Amino acid sequence: LAVVKVTQLSIKPGTLFYGCSLSNQCTATESHHHTVSVGPLCVCGLNRQPCSKQVWLRRRRQKRPQRKIQKNVIEILFFFCDCRSFISYTYFCVVTGQNDVEEKRRHSILDIAILQDHIALQCEALRRVQSERADLRRRARDMEQKLQHERQDHRDIYWDLSRQYKTMQTKLTNKVKKLEQEVSQLKEDLALSQEELSKEKRERKQMEQEKDAIIADLRQKLDNIESDYEKILHETLDSLSSQLSVTRQGWEDESATLHQKYKEPLSEFGLNALDL
């Protein structure tokens, strides 16, 4: 392969060279300088158009921002169009200054082989990209279906929990109302019971007071009756004692009379009236 001129260029990392005479899609790194052929056989990797060394250096001095070449279908189609212009340009540039037809044919065959390799690589990359895109689409559909199922499950769970919460809230509300009614009824019953208890206490106290009054009255009457009976008894006993004294005195007088009357007859019979 004839090269017009070889120059050491400092290439930034990530720059891709498509169609260069000395490189096959080479990526420059920060650790070394890549050697490429610039001149009639070089295709600028930034604009994908044939250019000379002076044009390339002028564009480099202008410090135009470099664009990264993306591997997609549109760029591959543009690259195929550039390949045709590259073949024509390379063919006419190489034959300039050379008279050997066989050498030109050999150069053309080598350039065509290089371009065919590039086309094969790009086709393989295209097939790989299409396969990855189909796989990504399939995975995206699967993830979308899974997401839809998850959302449906979440909605079902949400509605079920909402229904359970509403049911529980209704039950608790009814239970609270029922308990409030029971508490109100119990309060009313308690008030009535307390009122009845107060009434019973008042009645009982009144009854106790009445009983105490009756008992005191009865005791007073009993004391009066006792004093009356005691007085009557004393009077009766006094009267009985006086009557007994009178009767005793009468008996003693009568006894003395009888003793004197029967004393002499008894003495005649040898009896003592006092012994009888």
Explain what you see:
- This protein has a domain of 134 residues.
- With 276 residues, it is mainly α.
- The termini are far apart.
- Helix content is 72%, strand content 4%.
- Strands 1-4 form a two-stranded antiparallel ribbon. It has a two-stranded antiparallel sheet with strand order 2-3.
- Strand 2 and strand 3 form a beta hairpin.
- The protein has 3 helices and 4 strands, in the order ββββααα.
Tally of individual helices = 3
Strand content: under 5%
Helix vs. strand class: mainly alpha
* Largest β sheet strand count, sense and barrel closure: 2 strands, antiparallel
* Order of neighbouring strands in the sheet with most strands: 1-4
Task: Kindly summarize this structure in a few lines.
The protein has 276 residues and is mainly α.
List its salient traits.
72% helix, mainly alpha, two-stranded antiparallel sheet, 3 helices, disordered N terminus, 276 residues
Question: What's the SSE blueprint?
Answer:
Elements: E1 6-9, E2 16-17, E3 26-27, E4 34-37, H1 53-61, H2 73-95, H3 101-268
Antiparallel strand pairs: 1-4, 2-3
Helix pairs in contact: 2-3
